[in-house]
Amino acid sequence: MPRGLFITLEGLDGSGKTTQINRLAAWLKKRATDTPQNAGALSFRRSSGGMVGGSGLVLTRQPGGTPTGDRIRALLLDSRSTALSPMTEMALMFADRAQTIAEVIEPALKTGKIVLCDRFTDSTEAYQGGGRQLGSAPVLELHRILCSNLQPDLTLMLLPSLEASLARARHRNQRAEAQTGQNENRFEQEQDEFYRRVWEKYKEIAAREPQRVVLIEGDLTIGRVHKKIIAAVGERLTLKAHNLG
Question: Sheet harboring 45-46: ordered strands across?
């Protein structure tokens, strides 16, 4: 069976990743239904661990995406986790990632599925390598060792303005805490300079890997971002079908 397609979405919190990954999943489902040879290929069922599964499409996130990953996520994002060193933070991110690859991503790709992942190693390079100032080298080396250097086929990087992203993320997390009691504000408590370094590292990654990363920049409407995303994904799907043919 041909290997599946691995697509990641990246960007600051508040960049619209969650909205766009759900829109992309709906578009892929409709595309499969509308295309006779793909009819019924994408079906969905909700499951625990922040993952959506089906016969042809898997959605997951990092941190999280597995039962173990959800416990790691709770520790990493809780604002009460104040004593984590940058190295510990990075190690926990990779522990989560290695588990998700083994439990979710690789099994799905081996059976020909499309995997949509909300964040991957680019996030660690941006947040820990850039924001925490650990540098790119240790992040990329840990990815090589712990993740077998698994690379996405396509990365959709959403970079609206820094100010807009931070305002949305902080407001969203405050609202979520009030509604659910879950506190995931640890990163949002960082100073703006931390996020400036994250934003700049994302730009560096996009410039370094233009074949993999599609940069969607600026304060665009949800609809315009979605159009850019489906154009990029549609092109990759067409290319994959051509290569298989």
Answer: 45-46, 52-53, 57-61, 114-118, 5-11, 154-159, 213-217
